[in-house]
Amino acid sequence: MKILIKLALTSLIGVTVMSITATADVAKGQKIYSKTVKPQCNNMTGSNFAGKHTQDQWEEIYDAGKLGDEISKICGGFKLNEKLHPHLYDFAYEYANDSGNVPSC
User: For residue 97, how many other CB atoms are within 10 A of its CB?
Assistant: First the structure.
């Protein structure tokens, strides 16, 4: 019985940790923008980048799977790894032109 309880608790903790790390993060998106995207966008500020669209527009672009195309359009052909799209989307959504938030990059 002890082994079964230990196995169940271990599984629960494992699933919890994996679900937390699988979510996107605004701070991680800002870091990705600053280190990866910004140099490819002629050092466009994060505020200018995210301000290209409203939150609804960023959401439509992301839901349609066109975030990579939009980044490429804004940054002159730059292609960002698709694994990073959820984080950059969270960043762009958080600091969109209608959000009232201003990033520090």
Answer: 15
